[in-house]
């Protein structure tokens, strides 16, 4: 949530910072701002999306080769210019951009106000600029002033600080909110997310919690809140630059839907051994012995990642014979979960930064569970906090609504299920081979669904005026119904509910009349006939039916509209049925004149609890 960029080097900073902000806009778009060091600190800020800041900057011609920038998702204070970052101290000698939440900001603000500081915003972040100013007035040099200030705050931060009197120098610090430093030739970048800087460099260093870096054009000095001389850990990211741009597509959401065949290919590359009939997951090999001993898996995640976890529950129970529970990460630690050393807690997260999911892992570690991550973002907090794990390799997901990451999560969960089933001697070889072969042909099947996009567009066009929609599915398709409803509501603002088809008669059917359509997932699987009965029940109440099925002969007597996807084994079918639902949501948003990449009130990477 919120995006940060910093630059110090030999180029003009403003265009670099703005380029980075455009890549990060998916993290928040309530307001944006830049601050350039040029003998003084010049700040330009604006309410709304980055395009509004662009317009304002055109009048300023900011010159200077170091600076910081921010795009905001509002937590404390309404989305107005005065609450936009960067925030400055009273004398204009310090400016900060901040992600996270300073929980004790009210008491700090009161204290500082008592000492004569004047605040200009309602944000928690501004307190950081004043604290640093206060410590410097007491005689501390910049780094020590930042350290002393951070010692006073409770909460989370990804912070970049720039000083009027320290040319070509930025300071950055992390506690619970990600930051990465990009290493160039005589220049350095700072960002909350590598996608902002990979067009400039792929050599990066992720900060750990409690670390502070002094970044100048010449080099990086790393220390921690409580110690000096922290060693450097530079890594090379092998992301393609194109994956972070939308290319020929009108929106990232569409681009990310359309690239799903390649995403699945990348997620299974080197992991499907068709000759040996094995799932190869090197990331789990180090914990093989513990995985043999576990008696239960708890999958934690939020939103779409949670729904992918529900598919994982079916997969792992069926293919590995291990009892699985799926928990909303935001609820997990408020219960008294029964977690033992024989429990594996698997966090599913695209960003690897979702605060609730990360906290669930911290809680699981405290209870000595084996912690695992299924994470897309390399080097992210969850990836680093867990004992072992598997990366999605889906590439950066920029659209706020998760699409390709969700599909890749289900893909990798099916591999994890095969891996565990084989490790524990539960899964018959023939079944393992069937799943692996199914995964191997999946990119081609997904291509077929996408090639048939016209059938989805027609349905979306026909129902463009709908105000409500019910999504139904049973067994493996139930989580897809939940996901379809989430996708539709978040990008098109159409009210949608996802239900297990079996639950429909226990309440939701009361909603149904001729103006309330249902999208029913009914591939020809083990519950096909039951789902068809549910369709009949809806039709008897005059509810319009859109069926997503594998059955070419599904007659229009059963459904008003039919979307056909290729058939695969039941356990892998969700990968195919979700794609039309992603497209329906996308088309509905576009038809209503909305930007599906930036739905209102949302942000990618929810780093507050
Ligand atoms: C929905 C969506 C969100 C995320 C959720 C978890 O389209 O994108 O529901 O799935 O915020 O995010 P990650 O996977 O980054 O932990």
SSE blueprint:
Elements: E1 3-8, H1 13-24, E2 31-37, E3 41-47, H2 50-57, E4 66-72, E5 87-88, E6 94-99, H3 105-114, H4 126-137, H5 142-152, E7 157-163, E8 169-175, E9 180-183, E10 188-191, E11 203-206, E12 211-216, E13 220-224, E14 235-236, H6 252-258, H7 260-268, E15 272-273, E16 278-279, H8 282-285, H9 288-293, E17 296-301, H10 303-320, E18 323-328, H11 329-332, E19 343-349, H12 355-366, E20 370-375, H13 381-385, E21 388-391, H14 404-423, H15 429-451, H16 453-462, E22 468-473, H17 478-492, E23 495-500, E24 518-521, H18 528-540, E25 545-549, E26 561-564, H19 573-591
Parallel strand pairs: 17-18, 17-19, 19-20, 20-21, 22-23, 22-24, 24-25, 25-26
Antiparallel strand pairs: 1-4, 1-10, 2-3, 2-4, 5-6, 6-7, 7-8, 8-12, 9-10, 9-11, 11-14, 12-13, 15-16
Helix pairs in contact: 3-4, 4-5, 7-14, 7-15, 10-14, 10-17, 14-15, 15-19, 16-19, 17-19
Model description:
By secondary structure, this protein is of the alpha/beta class. It has three domains: 3-244, Aminohydrolase, N-terminal nucleophile (Ntn) domain (Glutamine Phosphoribosylpyrophosphate, subunit 1, domain 1, 4-Layer Sandwich), CATH 3.60.20.10; 252-449, Rossmann fold (3-Layer(aba) Sandwich); 453-591, Glucose-6-phosphate isomerase like protein, domain 1 (Rossmann fold). The longest helix has 23 residues, at 429-451. The protein is globular. The N and C termini lie close together (11 Å). The model has no long low-confidence stretch (mean pLDDT 92). Fructose -6-phosphate binds at residues 302-305, 349-351, 354, 357, 401-402, 486, 490, 605-606.
């Amino acid at each position: 949530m919120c995006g940060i960029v910093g630059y110090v080097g030999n180029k003009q900073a403003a265009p670099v910072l703005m380029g980075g902000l455009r890549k990060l806009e998916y993290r928040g778009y309530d307001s944006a701002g830049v601050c350039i060091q040029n003998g003084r600190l010049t700040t330009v800020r604006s309410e709304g999306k980055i395009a509004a800041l662009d317009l304002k900057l055109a009048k300023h011609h900011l010159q200077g080769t170091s600076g910081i920038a921010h795009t905001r998702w509002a937590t404390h204070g309404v989305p107005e210019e005065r609450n936009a970052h960067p925030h400055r101290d009273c004398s204009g000698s310090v400016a900060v951009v901040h992600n996270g939440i300073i929980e004790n900001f009210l008491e700090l603000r009161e204290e500082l106000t008592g000492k004569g500081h004047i605040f200009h915003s309602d944000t928690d972040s501004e307190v950081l600029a004043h604290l640093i100013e206060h410590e410097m007035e007491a005689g501390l040099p910049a780094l020590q002033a930042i350290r002393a200030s951070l010692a006073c705050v409770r909460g989370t931060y990804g912070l970049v600080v720039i000083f009027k009197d320290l040319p070509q120098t930025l300071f950055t610090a992390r506690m619970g909110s990600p930051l990465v430093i990009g290493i160039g030739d005589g220049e350095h970048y700072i960002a909350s997310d590598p996608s902002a800087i990979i067009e400039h460099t792929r050599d990066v260093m992720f900060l750990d919690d409690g670390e502070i870096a002094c970044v100048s054009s010449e080099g990086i000095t790393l220390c921690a809140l409580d110690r000096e001389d922290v060693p450097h850990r530079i890594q090379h990211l092998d992301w393609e630059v194109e994956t972070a741009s939308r290319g020929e597509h009108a929106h990232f959401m569409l681009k990310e839907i359309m690239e799903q065949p390649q995403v699945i290919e990348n997620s299974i590359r080197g992991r499907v051994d068709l000759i040996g009939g094995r799932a190869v997951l090197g990331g789990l090999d180090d914990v093989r012995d513990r995985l043999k001993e576990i008696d239960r898996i708890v999958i934690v995640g939020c939103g779409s990642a949670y729904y992918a976890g529900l598919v994982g529950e079916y997969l792992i129970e069926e293919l590995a014979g291990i009892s699985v529970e799926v928990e909303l990460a935001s609820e997990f630690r408020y219960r008294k979960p029964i977690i033992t050393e024989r429990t594996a807690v698997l966090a599913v997260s695209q960003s690897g930064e979702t605060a609730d999911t990360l906290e669930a892992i911290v809680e699981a570690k405290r209870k000595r569970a084996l912690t695992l991550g299924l994470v897309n973002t390399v080097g992210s907090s969850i990836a680093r906090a867990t004992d072992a794990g598997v990366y999605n390799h889906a590439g950066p997901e920029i659209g706020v609504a998760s699409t390709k990451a969700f599909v890749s999560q289900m893909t990798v969960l099916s591999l994890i299920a095969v891996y565990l089933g084989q490790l524990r001697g539960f899964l018959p070889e023939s079944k393992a081979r069937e799943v692996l072969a199914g995964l191997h042909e999946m990119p081609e099947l997904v291509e077929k669904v996408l090639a048939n996009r016209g059938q989805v567009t027609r349905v979306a066009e026909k129902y463009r005026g709908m105000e409500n929609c019910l999504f139904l599915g049973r067994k493996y398709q139930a989580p897809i119904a939940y996901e379809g409803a989430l996708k539709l509501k978040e990008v098109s603002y159409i009210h949608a509910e996802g239900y297990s088809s079996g639950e429909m008669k226990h309440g939701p059917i009361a909603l149904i009349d001729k103006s309330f359509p249902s999208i029913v997932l009914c591939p020809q699987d083990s519950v096909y006939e039951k789902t068809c009965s549910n369709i009949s029940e809806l039709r008897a109440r005059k509810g319009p039916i859109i069926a997503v099925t594998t059955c070419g002969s599904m007659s229009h007597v059963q459904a008003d509209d039919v979307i056909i996807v290729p058939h695969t084994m039941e356990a892998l079918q969700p990968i195919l049925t979700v794609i039309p639902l992603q497209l329906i949501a996308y088309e509905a948003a576009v038809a209503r004149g909305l930007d599906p990449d930036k739905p209102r009130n949302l942000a990618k990477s929810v780093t507050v609890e």
